[in-house]
Amino acid sequence: MRRPLGYASFVLAVIALLAGSAITARQPDVGTIAGTPLWLVVSKSLLALGISFGAYGLYALLLRFLTQRTPDKRRQHDLRNVLRLLFIAAVLIAVLGIITDQWVGVLFSLGVVGFAVTFALQQPLFSLIGWIYIMVKRPYQVGDRVAIEGTKGDVVSVDFLVTTVWEINGELVTSNQPSGRIVTLPNSVVLSSHVYNYSWEGFPYVWNELPIQVAYETELDFARELMVEEADAFLGDEMADHIAEYRERLAETPVELEVRDRPAVNIVQKESWVELRLRYLVHPRRGQRVRNELYERILERMNDEPERVKFPVSRNR
Q1: Which residues on adjacent β-strands are paired with residue 279?
Q2: Least packed by Cβ within 10 Å: which of 41, 110, 291, 292?
Q3: Terminus-to-terminus CA distance in the chain, angstroms?
Q4: How many CB atoms lie within 10 A of CB 227?
Q5: Residue (of 218, 213, 211, 200) closest to 280 by Cα position
């Protein structure tokens, strides 16, 4: 938001407030509207307009000041929403107070109206409560990859009532690739549904598995070692660093868990083959690229050893 816009709003606010005050002081007899003196209607309108322009100018300058000192785009998004809500509420109360000249009555009326709105607009109210919960508890924030009520994707915005997600997978594509669709979810879903966060701020990594099927005639020890070697050469050191972070997080909880700091292979017996599942740590947005790279490296190595690694379907290699 540009600084000149905030200054321009302040200038318009001063002009409107001065004009409204001048009309109130002179009280010219220029007729009535519905029994109300026209000068009173005009002066109150100008004062309300001045308050609105002044609040917008203050909002623009304050937001610019705070966002310049907040380099994190996620924090900037949250800060913008909180400031917007506070200024809207303040302007609403100020304008109603000016129009009615009953400040205590306005606050009381807002309380009564709010009580009635609670019954008339339950779903939007729950969504607003959900937004407050998201701001306080941080189940997710802008930029996180999440899964909520069957929708999986990257959060692009969290407004007062809805969360907007850039979808991955869905009905159009697979393999954790963007579908190009935008999904809008009411914030109230966080109060009643499971929220899966794949890239939360404390530890933005997940474990992936790459399954490869081999025949029972395969030398399993050799095949497992081959897969571990390729994975370790590709991302072993990076994984070890992230596991160190994970262990620090884990130490802050009562959970006792043994975590390997290098890639590993688990064996699953199937009816007609043996499945070797390579387990490794990766950032969720790099998951498919890493999987493709690992598969190509491992398959190339296995094809170089046709006597030691055999596949379920026999073919010339």
Answers
A1: 209, 264
A2: 292
A3: 62
A4: 24
A5: 211
Count of positions (residues) in the chain: 317
The region, left, alpha or beta by phi > 0 then psi within -120 to 50, assigned to residue 31 is left
| pTM (predicted TM-score) | 0.63
Q: What is the rounded CA–CA span in Å between residue 132 and residue 156?
A: 17
Yes or no: say if 153 and 196 are a contact pair by the CB < 8 Å rule: no
From residue 283, alpha-carbon distances to 181, 205, 280, 293, 297 in Å are 22, 4, 10, 14, 19
Closest CA relative to residue 165, chosen from 186, 137, 134: 186
Q: What is the mean pLDDT of the chain?
A: 82
In which band, very low, low, confident or very high, does the pLDDT at 2 lie, cut at 50, 70 and 90? Answer: low
pLDDT in tens, 157-181: 998 889 999 998 877 787 778 888 9
* 227, 276 Cβ separation under 8 angstroms: yes
